[in-house]
UniProtKB/TrEMBL annotation:
Protein name: Class I SAM-dependent methyltransferase
Membrane-crossing segments per the record: none
InterPro entries: Diverse_substrate_MTase (IPR051052), Methyltransf_25 (IPR041698), SAM-dependent_MTases_sf (IPR029063)
Record has Methyltransferase as a keyword: yes
Keyword vocabulary terms for this entry: Methyltransferase, Transferase
Source species: Micromonospora orduensis
Residue ranges constituting the Methyltransferase domain according to the UniProt record: 48-137
Pfam families reported for this sequence: Methyltransf_25
A Gene Ontology BP annotation from the UniProt entry: methylation
One MF term in the entry's GO annotations: methyltransferase activity
Superkingdom of the organism of origin: Bacteria
């Protein structure tokens, strides 16, 4: 492992876009309702979703605004977002291939700017400062934090076995090594914390925190859990190079043996919404 600090590169999620729709849970309608109520939205203004990926949050919230813009640095993610927009009939979103660090990029001002499981990949002090200057009066920054590929750990009885996540991690490590991979680099300590300090230094006040309760038990077929694995930066398909077929075969063998009748069950995690004001 090199001793240089991790740097973003465009391969971070290479090959993962098509797995998102299969392996990650959609954000629930209750999340849109919570944001709508907390921000007293009235159908006007514009939404900017930064690091939008395949549009999971963008498409949920876009109907609450006149227009929306989703930006992402991964072209495949944007292609998937466009496909999903067509599937659900959302037509008021513009998709832009753009890194957050390149904002404002002449995009104008916004009533709400959202980050869903994306801010930790960015130059956070720089992005926070630039986004602050893009917010209209009385606007808000909304951070959505939720693990959407994996449920709550526990030993409570479920109708099917839980996915064997520890053994999955061990299998990934047997192919990629014990240090977490991300793009062309490594993240031995995981992604950065200290978000509140970053936000306050950039001139934001708050935060206001809202919890969107979930907790329901959902069934998950083997294909869904396999796609959940490939949707992660730490096990994105490109990382396995020419060993990808062997890894996928081993992964599916592990999952098939651990499932019952081809199914797993998990309890969905609550979703935390963190709202900051300039």
């Amino acid at each position: 492992m090199p001793e240089t600090a991790w740097e973003w590169d465009e391969t971070l999620y290479a090959g993962s876009a098509s797995h998102y729709s299969v392996g990650r849970w959609d954000y629930p309608p209750e999340l849109a309702e919570a944001v709508d109520t907390a921000l007293d939205l009235d159908g006007t203004g514009r939404l900017l979703d930064v690091g939008c990926g395949p549009g999971s949050l963008t498409l949920l919230l876009a109907p609450l605004f006149e227009a929306a813009v989703g930006i992402d640095a991964d072209r495949d993610m944007l292609a998937e977002a466009q496909r999903r927009a067509g599937d659900v009939g959302v037509t008021n979103v513009e998709w832009r291939h753009l890194r957050a660090e390149d904002l404002p990029a002449d995009l104008g001002t916004f009533r709400v700017v959202t980050f869903a499981q994306s801010f930790h990949w960015m130059d956070r002090p720089l992005v926070a400062r630039r986004v602050r200057d893009m917010l209209a009066p009385d606007a808000a920054w909304v951070h959505v934090g939720a693990t959407t590929h994996q449920g709550v750990a526990g030993d409570d009885a479920l109708p099917y076995p839980r996915p064997p996540w520890r053994r999955i991690d061990e299998l990934v490590a047997s192919y990629l090594g014990p240090i977490r991979r991300a793009g062309q680099g490594w993240l031995p300590g995981g992604t950065a914390g200290g978000e509140e300090e970053v936000m306050r230094a950039a001139g934001f006040t708050g935060p206001t925190r809202i919890t969107v309760e979930q907790g329901m038990v959902v069934e998950r077929p083997v294909d869904e859990v396999a796609s959940a694995v490939f949707s992660l930066s730490s096990s994105a398909p490109h990382l396995f190079a020419d060993r990808l077929p062997a890894f996928e075969a081993d992964l599916r063998s592990l999952l098939t043996a651990a499932a019952r009748d081809g199914l797993f069950a998990e309890r969905r995690r609550d979703i935390e919404v963190v709202i900051w004001r300039p």
